[in-house]
Model the fold of this input.
Amino acid sequence: MWTAEQQAIHRRESERFPSNLTDAEWWQLAPLIPPASPGGRPRKTDMRAAMNAIFYLLRTGCPWRYLPSDGFPPRSTVYNIFRKFQRDRTWDAIWAELHMVLREREGREASPSAAIIDSQSLKAAEKGAVKTTQLGYDAGKKVKGRKIHALVDTIGLPMRVVVHSAGIQDRDGAALVLDKIRNRFPWLELVWADGGYNAHQVKDAVAAVPTLRMEIVKRTDDMKGFVVLPRRWVVERTFSWFGRNRRLAKDWENLAETLHAFVTLAAIQLGIRRLARK
Done:
């Protein structure tokens, strides 16, 4: 339980910025940061300060050029680290390791057997010369932008996140999320979803994964107004966790890959904070 005593221990008032890593959080993250590439010059950048800068961008949503110089490495250095880790899929690898550790800390198997799928549409910000082919219009939500399509486990931790055009309906985006899911989660057996996934496209995608089945959680006719539906609320809570970060309040990115990286960083930040409180 998050008690007043624990709040006092983990209060972040001593940090230069509230988004900065505490010693306990850095102790969780540091072993997962890959070393410098062999054969080059020794790494001189303080990686803790670089990660503080990246989490500052995530939390505040400020543009790269507005990154404060006080306490952070140069903006170009932070940007190059962010991009390199994005291209090398380092962010994904860090989250994959944290996900397993978090589940084991909760007394669960490292690989989930059940999950929940849903999507969230983000309105696109003005992007100038951005390729409009990456954007789309979600007629249901009346939003032009992109969708964050997420598969989460039963405690709300992301298992796979796919960023695609908001014009792609959930029934078609599900195939992107479930594609080759067995390679990462071999014991996955059941996926819960809402009525938007009750379509032959989803059934075909599920049928392509041996022994996987999908269960549609529907509202009953006697339900009036807002009702918390079994299982479906878990993924909605995950989206609310993402929404704590202003970088994810709208789709500010020119590339879908960049938005995906910041979603993964939001999960990493959530994971190391939880582990630091144990």
Notes: DSSP finds ten helices and six strands in the chain. The chain has a mean pLDDT of 89. The two ends are 11 Å apart (CA to CA). The first strand starts at residue 114 and ends at 123.
